[in-house]
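Re: the multi-chain job from yesterday

Posting the exact lines I submitted so nobody has to dig through the queue logs.
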Amino acid sequence: MTSFEHRQTAHCESGAVSSLLRHHGLPLSEPMVFGLSAALTYAYIPLLKIGGMPMLAYRMPPGMIIRGLSKRVGINFRFQRFRRPEQGMAVLDQHLAQARPVGLQTSVYWLPYFPENMRFHFNAHNLVAYGRDGEDYLISDPTFEHPVRADGPSLQRARFVKGMLAPKGLIYYPEKMPEMVDYPRVIPAAIGRTSKLMLETPLPFIGVRGINYVARKLEGFDPTGDHQQQLILGHMVRMQEEIGTGGAGFRFLFASFLQESAELLQNERLQAAADLFTDAGDEWRRFALYAAKMLKGRMALDYHKLAEQLRVVAAMEEQGYRDLRKAIG
Amino acid sequence: MKENEVPQDQAPGLGGERKALYARDASGRYTTVASSGWDAEEIVLQQALDEYSRACAAARARVERGESAALEYHMYSRRMDITLLAQSTGFFKWQVRRHLRPQVFSSLSARKLQRYEQALQLSATELASLPPPPTPDSPQS
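And the result, structure tokens for all chains:
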């Protein structure tokens, strides 16, 4: 049976990629994978509704981590998608028979090991399958503390759901990897891209402008309490703090990447930026705490206070990206 | 967030699992810390789950009054809505809406019914009827 070192990470895609690369001899930490793929963002897209809620994201869309990292660092991933589920399972079995752990895209809802309260229809959950034991598949799910198992029919169901972000049985694994990573080149490139996206987006609901946009939107909410608006507020907090963000909508994960980069490049300005993004993360969490208390009635519902808090975050992040640009000058 | 500030609120939503959060240790270095959950997060998770329960209960009442097919109840009990059910079956939303009418549902062809069986992972018999009402202490509605 394949031996595979399971490690719990915060986010599924950066975690699965980090695990697969380590297994194949390229040790990149989860924060490094996240940072180098320039995955951090902020986007509020009210026109795109998921489960009746506006799309809100603190990171780039699913798949961008693998693609962004591959492009920047020079890794070739092989991707396989399938029309027929039986074929998708057969190919998975072949990989496992050859002792090759592979990444899979799945729907959270149909994975049997997820606790009931965590089961939602999110179709872009990443995990690593590394072996079989009788009818069970052995799985290293990055968001779980220990390795888990899934029976064949459930795994097939999870890999072949239809709809938004349908996985189509996606299997991926690295085929060609560089001997080493050219950090002095790729770290500034990735940081530059994230900063540009957060500071210079032409769209008002993305980046730092997006955070201010949502602040204005919150101020327009009915102060006496409207059910739908309160659901949207709860949704914002869920997207920010739910499993997979590492806390504070990936801001701590990003700060960890900056810290690691500061040491690799001996760059003190990056260390200072890591401190600033840690503070920004703490302010994001304060926003979550206020919002939750207001929803629960432990604090008076005050959308202006929430908007103010978001503006604090926006100002800190804006400063952060400007400092980062100077740091990579 | 510092290591010792990582919430350990034993949140029921995590079902006993712990999740990884990034936090700084005493020397300021980032590390991952296993968290048993955070009250703030639990509140908003519960809010979302309550919304599904409400939808389930309302659908159950409509089915019992004969205004809706049991399919509507099963859709919500699988944490879906019309958009999601349409996507996972390949039907248009207007078709799903139509199929939620009792008289339309009862005359669905076996092939169409099969798409609902597949998407919701329920047998045709299960789809056509309501499960027994929930007991007060069961989390499902």
